[in-house]
Amino acid sequence: MKHFTPTKILSLMMLITAVLLMSNCKSTKEVADAPKGNSDETLIEVYCTGPEYESNDGFIRASFFGESGDMALSKKVAKSNTLEELSSKIEVSVKAVIDNYNSSREKDLNESVEKKYEELIRQVVKQKITGYKTVCEKVTKTKEGKYRTYLAYELPVDNVLDPVYTKISKDDELKVDYDYQKFKKTFEEEMRKTENK
Fold first, then answer.
1. Alpha carbon distance, N-terminus to C-terminus of the chain
2. Distance between CA atoms of residues 66 and 103, nearest Å
3. Which helix (H) or strand (E) covers residue 134, if one does?
């Protein structure tokens, strides 16, 4: 059985998301001019996606859509899907960061400390996402008469790192070996790697 790293899992999730978005975008804006030499192709714009909606070292960003015959319900579905995508990015990123942070430490961590870090990951990921804001919202209507809402949210990286710091600072065993600036730098590097794949 193959071992999947958090980075590979995130890449696979992003690929699946892209395929779903592309296959379900009948209501997106079609551009009249087809690429030269390919008259059977139509360029499609997928709302709330692109470089300005990717995570960076300051923000974790996620986008998704929801569809329904009722506009309000399409917005609720879009919100749920986008928050789920945001949570998934946080989970994968925090796990990768803690793994990379631990492996970069000058000394090997004992089993007790490793287990505490793993528990910390679970607690941070399970916490309610707060402080996110909407950076894009578009509503379209399909030919079938359904509403499709596209959303993109962003969450400051500090909203994720601060609870990690708070939990570690309350644990005598963890705080001895904890370097906040190094951890933050590792987190920012992981976010850049994730979005550049």
1. 24
2. 40
3. strand 133-141
**pTM of the model as a whole:** 0.67
Segment 47-97, tens digit of pLDDT: 999 999 998 878 989 999 999 999 999 999 999 999 999 988 888 777 777
- Domain-located, residue 1: no
- Read off the tokens for 112: 């007790």
Sheet containing 133-141: order of strands = 59-68, 147-156, 133-141
Would you say residue 133 lies in a domain? Answer: yes
Backbone angles phi, psi at 133, to 5 degrees: -135, 155
Cα–Cα dist 90/86, whole Å: 6
Which has the closest alpha carbon to 193: 65, 57, 74? 57
Contact between 21 and 46 (Cβ < 8 Å): yes
What SS3 state is found at 181? helix
Amino acid at 109: L
Q: 55 is in which domain, residue-wise?
A: 6-195
Give me the number of domains the chain comprises.
1
- Is the Cβ–Cβ distance between 104 and 189 less than 8 Å? no
Residue pLDDT, tens place only, 148-165: 999 999 999 888 878 777
30's tokens = 């079609």
Cα separation, 25 vs 190, in Å, equals 30
CA dihedral 43, 44, 47, 48 (to 10 degrees): -60
Tokens at residue 41, please? 């192709």
